[in-house]
Request: fold
Amino acid sequence: MIAATTALSLLAQNAAWAATTCTDGSTFPASGFLVGSANLPNSPNNWTEGVFTGSFGSVFVPDNSVNENNDPGQPLTKGGHNWVFDQGSTLCRVNDTGPAGALATGWNLPPASSANCVLLPIIKNGIVTNIGDIPGQGMAITPTCDPTILASSANTYFNQLGCAISYADNGPDATGKPKATTSQTATSFIFAVGIKSGLFQIPLKNSLSTGTGTPAGKFAVGQNYYQAGGNNGEILGAKPTSAAISPDGMFAMITSTRNQQAVFACLNPLGDPGSPFAAPSFANFSYTQTTQVKCMQVGQNNLKQDITTTFGPDNQPYFGGQRVVNAFNGNPGGPFANAWPQCIYQGVGGLPFPSPTGTDQLQANFKTVFNNNSQNHCGAAQPVFSLGSGAQVTQPNSMVTHGSYMYLAPIGGIVVQAKVTPTPNGTQYSNVQTYVTGTSLVTGLGFSEDIKKLVVYGDPSGIGAPAQEVLTVVPICEP
Reply:
């Protein structure tokens, strides 16, 4: 009944988008993509059948590859690979399969023991006791560097961070500045949690091999574990299952599906890059010293069960589960005291509130609160009525961001799309519509940028049966 109500309530909103052109040149269907219809015929299983198990979705990581395994006789990678959070094997970088010199027509899941996969250690009291923690839901980020805007008003925290990482990885150029990077050349990072250990950051770097048949693209180069600034016991007690990273790289976030409402955040999880508006000094920067990163509880998701956590295009954290989508303040963003991120220090005496314009003062406030372990000032998150109520987005299993859009998968084999626009008075949601209907129970979402498709992971068994995941790919349609 919920699925039917959701679909019907959204059909009227789709009509205005019917003229939208999709990535494959087609026109977005007036009622969205429907399994069994002319726009999505036959079964929902139209990509890589019978391989994955209970997947939490995937992330596309850009890299410098051209063909799979540097082999012109294999498919084009279009400068990147997909990493799948699979619960049957582990977090793995899938191989593209298909005809030579053409786009991939499927994926191959490598053995869990290969260099393509990440199996987390089990850590107790700071000591590795075993191996075998499977990563839960996670996100990826690739901070890039434009050295020409450093110490200027055009600089951002994201660029400052990207340049700090470039300096650490590549050293300075002839003028002493960090070397410029792109999303294909810069180090990428996957943030993942293990329910038995906590938060990890996994750097991904391009292979140096170029010979035919040798690995191409980015691979994991170790794992960096967060001791969580003395609060690791609290995080482990909450049984973490989801990790998220803000689009600017300033915050990592940790939540749990295990009926725990605590929301944990880590400040500067990739290291403190310094002020974006002052002359940079990167000599002492390190993104591997995660033991120095401060983490603490910042609020509660206020859900009976938090099934999925993500950051939206508006740099706001969203919590989805039983039974709606919540965010801090309910109306995310804007100048409100209990909106993210200023809610982290609301009510703390002696700190400018609202802080003066500029990241420097905000960073100073954040550091004061995190250094003092002053927790829980964001309080309980509230329903995002303009998103969850109007669209009947009930109990989403997955939420992901792509460009200016959020994609949500409520119960009933449905995917909903919404445009997210940050404004000075808070986030606005528009064009909320049914995007896909008729799939299996959705366990995760992802975007495969090489084939320009949305990937919907579904479990027809409903119990995470081995190698039964159904993958449905549809074009990306974003006006």
Notes: DSSP finds five helices and 29 strands in the chain. The two ends are 31 Å apart (CA to CA).
